[in-house]
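Hi everyone,

Forwarding the result from last night's run.
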Amino acid sequence: MRLSAIFAIAASFGVAAILCLVAAGFSVQVIEDNSRNSVRDTLDANDLIWSEVDANGLQVFLGGTAPTEAARFKALSIAGQVVDAARVIDQMDVADSAAIAPPAFSIEILRNDSGLSLIGLIPASTDRQELLEDIARATDEREVIDLLESADYPEPETWQDAIDFAVSALKTLPRTKISVAANRVEVTAMADSAGQKDTIEANLIRKTPDDIRLALNISAPRPVITPFTLRFLIQDGQARFDACSADTEETRRMILTAAAKSGLRQEADCTIGLGVPTPQWGKATTQAITALAQLGGGSVTFSDADITLVAEPGIPEKRFDDVVGALENALPAVFALHAVLPAPPNEKPQITPEFVATLSPEGLVQIRGRVGSETARETVNSFAKARFTSNSVHNTARVAEGLPRDWPLRILTGLEALSYLSNGAVTVTPEQLNLSGDSGNRHAQAMIARFLSDKLGDAKEFSIDIAYREALDPVASIPTPDECEAAIAGILSERKINFEPGSATIDEHGAAIMDDIAEILKKCGEIRMEIGGHTDSQGREVMNQQLSQSRARAVLNELRERRVLTSALTAKGYGESAPIADNQTEDGREANRRIEFKLIRPEPIKERTTGLESLEPELQTDEATGASGQNQEETPDEQD
């Protein structure tokens, strides 16, 4: 009886425990569901749908990937408002931040009479102090105003090339703005003349590295044209300009349009300048060009407000009178027209006096023909020696009577016009002055036409045939860097620079070779070139390297003594590392002991993925020049 009662009591407690466990589990499930659902609904209501919610007893777990750290913190805060914040467990991740694109590095270099300043953003790796010192040396400026900021991002691969080119450009530009980007340099400057503008542009284009795009905006003041001249001719059905001047772009278009309608087929250059005698210049010149086309041939010459129209011989007199009369009535009042209809040539041959002077490419002047008196001959001789050189003039002109009164003036004018050419000839007759030859100045024909028009007055019957030769142009005739490299290689392929055994002293035959190489480099200007020294494999490697370095340096010093600009040349010794022949034979070792001249070319631009935006090219160049490298001079002590 007693045992049964104990079992009954135990069973009661067991049933009660089971019921408590069931009730507790049900309660926990209810609490978890309520917590999870409440937090989930609240997060969704706050647009945090990326978050994930789970519950385990009283603990609420937040998961998912937050787009930002701020979004993660916001989710924690909202969940802590729904349930006790101590119950919230953070298991959220934060998405990786997008790679921040590096800034666009750039420098604005401003230089004028007041000084020089730098504005912009540069990589932190740029040696700011060295940059300031380089600019100060290039411009002779005592102080450079530094307004640069820096950012700690990788330096673009072409950044240093762009900086070096900009610094070298500053040397010849006293007033300029240079904008430097990673692979683009824009130069804005003002030249003193059109010729200086051409020279500056040519030099900058030659020096531009291959991996840098160059944009040029070089302006020059309009030239003062005195006298303001235009000369248009129609001969044998062919139309051309000997000289063309305009005061505005609109006037220039008017003149060229009228010339095209009158038969001009070739490209013409019409200089825009100052000194126009009247705003009616465009109207008068187009009327005269049109009138000449109506006549069918001849020439019309403007010298300021004076106009000379010479018709082609054989034109009917009635047509001449009609055209000239209409032109006289149409011209603005300020212009004075002098029209000439030459008489048809006589069939009976006549002896025409003439004076001829020729200028050879070597600068020798030969004078022959007729002068009016002994005094005139001495005057011509003295004038020619003053214009050319005393030892280059050979005068065989003879004294003759019956020459025109203006004969001395026409002779001296012809000689002075001839002095503008590199070579050519001038022939003076009573009716005509003919000048022909070659020049390295693109504008020589227009310049000479203005000169002759001014000097000859109303007797403006002259002809000009000037050919532009690029080889005579001091700017255009400069050889390209590749041509310079090839020319030096040609010399070294025929004659070798040899040294005294075991030393860096050039032997007695090397002076003539260095003279020839120096002449080439003087014509080439400033180009980046490496002088490489090479040895054979005899001796220790380190000593061969030192010997090759000293020999390359010796060649550089020889060029410097010959007044070659060496700032862009560098000397480097390669020792025995770059043989071109077999070192096991004497001939091979002799070939390997050599000096080479090679252009320094920029490294190719590698494709980048930093996010930098590329700039659209405005001007591309094919030639590359730049700053010089640094060399070390060492002394060899082992025989090669």
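The longest strand covers residues 115-123.

Cheers,
N.
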